[in-house]
Amino acid sequence: MGRHGWNSGARRWRLTALLGVGVAALALVLTVISTLPDNKGSTAGTTRDGDKVHGTPAEPPDQQGPSVGWGFTHTQHSADEGADAAVERAEKLLGERPLPQNQAIMGWGADNPEPVKGRYDFDALDRRVDFIRASGGTPVITLCCAPDWMKGGKAGVDNTNWSQPNLEKAPDPEHFQDYANLAATVAKRYPYVRHFIVWNEFKGFWNDGEGRWDYEGYTKLYNLVHKALKKVDKDIMVGGPYLVMDSLDPKQTDGASDAVKGAWGRMDQRIVDAFTYWNEHKAGADFVVVDGSSYTNDDEMLPDEFAATEKFTAVSRWIERQTGDLPLWWAEYYVEPADSKDERQGWSEPHRVAVQAAGMIAMARGGATSGFYWNPEDEKGASCAGCLWRPTDRASGGTRLPMYDLVSRFNEEFGPGTTYESVPVAKDDVPNVRVLADDKAVVVVNTLNRAISAKVDGKRFEMQGYEVKWLER
User: Secondary structure of 1-43 in the HEC alphabet?
Assistant: First the structure.
């Protein structure tokens, strides 16, 4: 969205001739300006009652703990819009095995929620929340990003700058409380949403002078938001810091941490420092949130794409040692490096699903209780690499894709409260499979691009290349 200004021009006017007109015109201008909210920008389509409860029933659900299970995040395009038949189909699909669903308050399909201070536009967010509830999902809200007027930009419905650099700016410190107030407004509007994540990936929180994360600034914002949400309802559950757990080549020593390392790499020390500061200075937390990839900052999958997922186990266990018994969420997790367009389409779907399954197994083995697959939904088309369902632009859309089967089954079998069990794996199969089990089910992943005969949990069976197989116990 563009900026605009007013310039009187260079022409010199003779005040003696125009004084009367000028005074009258000035009075008119001042009158018009004084009627604009905050003297800044249009408020068309906004309302003042942002905290008015939206949707029924409005009561919070009973017995919801800090762990929500394995689900997904809505991105720019999702199934809340499209051909009616496709939207209904996707909604019904998700209702078969209800999943936790995460949505940001600004960006990724949601409009600017507060274009002018005290004036709200929740139409897009309302639609996403309505879809989550209609499909039986547990709604989770990520409190990111911030309206322009909170970060040095111009207020007004038509003045939102949606460029990525602007969207990813943090609120200015003098507007931290304004952002906390917005968070409270969101919580009042959706009283049935019980889980809130504060911000996203430390976006905009970087200390240029010291070449590190501005963890002091983020923690100040986090604490204000935490306080505001708990004031709305003490039973609201709040988590952070949503740091990207970056890792470096295992041979690198400069800037690398000795605290968390493996064949997959070594943690970036700046991330360790940022997490440690937040953990020591946070006002409180009901769960811990991080994200990250199995590959290094140089997109290296070490020793290979399956073994690299061991990073999720190592990082999860390190976080548990720092935070004690707080449930751990992975808000995003990536196992396939993106191309120059930030797309992940280079692998076959069986390959992609198999490595994703290995990553989810690694997170669970590390103690994570919840994870959100970043759904790369396309707006149009008959197929969609890595998506949970086919795009809903056409009546035939909204049908299941292989990644949905993985995520939904994983959540069904290994949801909150799962106690994992060890199962025997034939010695010659140990290098080639990944396994996770509880008392009712076993998931087995073939890490090879060829058929194998495997023996797991006392059962012999055939597996196709990159197959993910579920066994009943």
Answer: CCCCCCCCCCCCCCHHHHHHHHHHHHHHHHHHHHCCHHHCCCC
CB-based contacts of 419, cutoff 8 Å, min separation 6: 438, 439
End-to-end CA distance of the chain: 57
pLDDT single digits (tens) 230-245: 999 999 999 999 999 9
Residues 6+ apart with CB under 8 A from 131: 78, 79, 80, 87, 91
The separation between CA 380 and the C-alpha centre of its own chain, rounded to angstroms, equals: 22
Q: Is 235 left (phi over 0), alpha (psi -120 to 50) or beta?
A: alpha
Tell me the β-bridge partners of 446: 433
Residue 288: phi, psi to the nearest 5?
-110, 140
> CA of 116: how far to CAs of 157, 181, 290, 306, 448, in Å?
7, 13, 31, 48, 55
Q: pLDDT digits over 394-438, tens only?
A: 999 999 999 999 999 999 999 999 999 999 999 999 999 999 999
Whole-number Å distance between alpha carbons of 365 and 262? 16
Q: Return the SS3 of 84.
A: helix
Strands 206-207 and 195-198: unpaired
Q: Which of 190, 198, 199 is nearest to 233 (CA)?
A: 190
